[in-house]
Amino acid sequence: MQFGRTFEEFEVGAVYKHWPGKTVTEYDDHLFCLLTMNHHPLHLDAHYAESSTDFGRNVVVGNYVYSLLLGMSVPDVSGKAIANLEVESLRHVAPTFHGDTVYGETTVLGKTPSKSKDDRGIVQVETRGHKQDGTLVCVFRRKVMVPTRTYVQQRGGDQPGRPEPVERGER
């Protein structure tokens, strides 16, 4: 299984469909809200959401949806990243509810060799998240600094730091 890509492996226009999707549970949403100290009743209080909002039910906090999509993209996009440089834009297009399944895909928009170091480059991507019914829920663009093949080879290959297994009796 590939984990991330080198600069040379990115092709402008390529689309990476991230799999599997993630079904969002009430627990996922509440835990994320509590960890990030977002106590808005739209996300935590079912009675409030049912009686006081246009949606009539709790809405999953948008930054959780963004975080899911970002995480889904790591094996295909930023698994070898030197740095996540910038989130250029982030839009929450439609609500996500408990029980919805979110799927992501990323399109490579551009790539630029680094001006200061020849062992890396910058890749611009757009990630889009859809629910199980195809509804677009979240779109974001970001720039990621990724290594060249030379950088990876000089630092131990695709799995740097991974120990070799020791056979029984060799210790």
From TrEMBL:
Domain of life of the native organism: Bacteria
Record Gene3D superfamilies: Hotdog Thioesterase
Listed InterPro entries: HotDog_dom_sf (IPR029069), MC_hydratase (IPR048274), MCH/BMMD (IPR052342)
Span list, region Disordered: 150-171
GO MF annotation, one: lyase activity
Residues spanning the membrane: none
PANTHER family in alphabetical order: BETA-METHYLMALYL-COA DEHYDRATASE, MONOAMINE OXIDASE-RELATED
Protein name per Swiss-Prot or TrEMBL: MaoC family dehydratase
Species this protein is from: Streptomyces qinzhouensis
